[in-house]
Amino acid sequence: MKRRLSAFFKLAVFFCLLFFLHLLPQKVYCARLGFVNFGGPQSGPDFENREEARIASIWATSDLRKMGRYDGSPNSQNLSGHGIVQKTLYFGLGAALESASCLTYGLSFLLPNKSECLLLSDLLTTIAKPVFAHALKRSASGSIPPSQLSWKLNEALLSQIPANSKEDEELLLFLKNRWLAKSSGFFAKAIDWVYPCFEVVVQRHPTTTSSYARDPASKPSETYQLRVDAWKQSLPYPTNYPLILTRPFDLQSYLPSHLSCQPDEPIEKTLNLLPQKERSILDLTPIFSVSPDEKWLEIWKSVQADLKKACKARGIPPERLLCIQKMEGKKIGGICLLPLSEGALEENNEYLLRWISSLGLTATPIELDRSEAPEIFSPSQQKNSSVSKEPFPSNQAPKIDHPQKALMIQGAFKLLQSLFGHISDETREKIERSSTRSAIAKLSISRIKKRLEAGEKISFFDTALDLEQIYADFSFLLELFSPFEPQDFAPIYQRALQSIPLKLQPLTSCSLHASGMTSLAGIFRAAEKSFGHPLRILYGENAYFECIETASQIGKAISLEEASLEDLKEADLLLAQFNPALKRTYLDATEYRVEKVGEVLRSLFSVRGKKALILALDCTFDFIDSPRVGELLTEFSNEIQEGLLNVVCYRSGLKFDLFGMDNYAGAPFYMIHSQDAKWSPFNLLLRDPVLMADRLSLNWFCIAYKTVAQELDLYRKQIFDNTRALLESVPKRLFEKSSKYRIVPVEEDADPTFIDIKISGPAHNIRGAAIVGGCLYTKCMQEGHPIFNRRSVGFYHPNFSIIFGPQNATIRLTLGLDPDQVSVLRRCFDLIDQLNGGETQPIFSDNR
Hints:
This protein is an alpha/beta fold. It has 29 helices and 16 strands. It folds into 5 domains: 2-198, no CATH class; 222-363, no CATH class; 412-486, no CATH class; 487-707, Aspartate Aminotransferase, domain 2, CATH 3.40.640; 714-834, Aspartate Aminotransferase, domain 1 (Alpha-Beta Complex). α21 (545-554) links the parallel β7 (536-539) and β8. The protein is globular.
């Protein structure tokens, strides 16, 4: 009763605050009384020294070393209407959570699942407390959200650097866009509204979204959508025509069934070549390429009428025809869909966008950020700066006792030393001759030095957040100096692959693609050319769900479990992966195992005779230098040398996000095959520009694989070890098939990257999200290990996602780098296990 009255009292106060807010004059309600002042345009020769001093002063007042934990000036009061609204919303949310907790507590006496109600009630009260506490705190007086302080500061500092050419202006704009840009972003509203309640302020990009940048078909990032909207304004099409942004190359050979319509060729003749009963693409680019933009709409209306007439005469449904026009810009490419059938336009757009996304051929985040800048530059009077040959000498290397901090900080220091060791005198002098570029270099070096000083003094999580900004500055330096060329990556990568047998090393080729799915697109295209017919594809139990979906749209794909003897004999390509991968297509609770790729190959060769096979081995969830791959290559070296087996190893380069890897777009790739002529089409994987990584990503992967390949594998091993330690410490009842809350077992020999928790029974989706998701979130936040929801694996922080299904819900949990997370998460699973039976105790404190 006392608790219920407390909740009602808080609700009453909440409505009183709303009434008071309603009475405020509008100019008070809307005023912004405090701003973060970044100063005006720079002037004078002491720009760099003044900027360093100003950064130091901002650090002192705002504690930017802890990623912008800004509480406003000690003597300032936030009297703005915005601040009052914010406090009122927090207070109302806290009251609502308390009321929901009371209701759930009451339901525990009426419903059979008492333990679940009690746990949920405790969770709601536990969350309500920091929400109320945050409502009573003094909020920041500035108009900039604390999570964007770093981005805004970087934007302001770069804006004060003058540009002497359009190239410099585009460089500055690109660096502004790239600061803290991630391929797998955050839920922006959660970062701004929820995490501050737990005193966690994460610096983010203003357009961050909880989407995967490579896959706009599932959910386009805000950056992608902004570029689509901006490009549409400069095109002659109506804005309702769909536009897909692609890599800045000709994708024709990677598109589904298509024909090109020539200006001097009757449309009827082209339509006669259409395949029967297939959705086909009709490329109208050549027709429009000979006409000025102002006549575009007139020409399209004429072509549209002719096409409709020709389709009707031949009995071709208009919705089967996807009319497109391709565009190639300097930075990105595009495909515009033209509406032959208005009713099918959206469906056709989804089909084509899904196709291009699944092959990893949409514009990468880096390509999207390379916007063309307006010509607003003016000559600068600023003095050029010299760039030190050794700004990070060995005697300044940070000494860190914490092993995981040391892995990150000392590894970052090695990267910095390596970068400046690879810069030629010619490149250094070129940068020093440019006042713009030398100022950027000086700014980045000074910021990195300041942040490196704080490594041992702050928590693991704050250290990792600091390093995010160090990595962002490091990418600036890579963009400026770019010491590596495309031909440099192959020998660097091959030296890191020590497990390849000596006799196979001359047969090994390496390259760097834009993404793992881009590599797969190249593999499929080369395989089709090698065999000369639509592909027949087998896939193993650990094949990644996106790879399975893409294989199904490219050719005939069937699992090894369902394959007939004839399928085994006739297959052209096998998709496999040693360690367990994410299986969205399999939501039943089954054990995750190491895939026995060697056994599969032996079985296939025993029934195939001398028929050649391609093994596409996904190494994303494996070590860079994988002992398993080495053993497989040793066993089948004869088949490789005889031309019977072509082993292609690819991986997503963005998983296991150490040293800011998620800031780039790259996928290391290598293949081992004989010089047999049938494998010659695979040379396109080494040179096709559609597949290749951009220059900035190339430089990152070159320097990372040359300098810190061992650290990258140690990072993977730590995450594997943390995940295994948690699996071994949770209550054994959670692995029982009869449990309503169950962890999917992982075979002992596997290197686990994630843990799947299955929730079954009535209202399983609601119970999974509210109880299991709420328990993980609340416990981790409360104990100083913030957990996030991002679309990837291998982050430094714990992460989880929820997959809703008709039979069960799946909570997919991935651990971060810090081993201390294991004990926190184990206590979460102790609580969850109580829901399978037994008495439930208050979880975080005696809330009742």
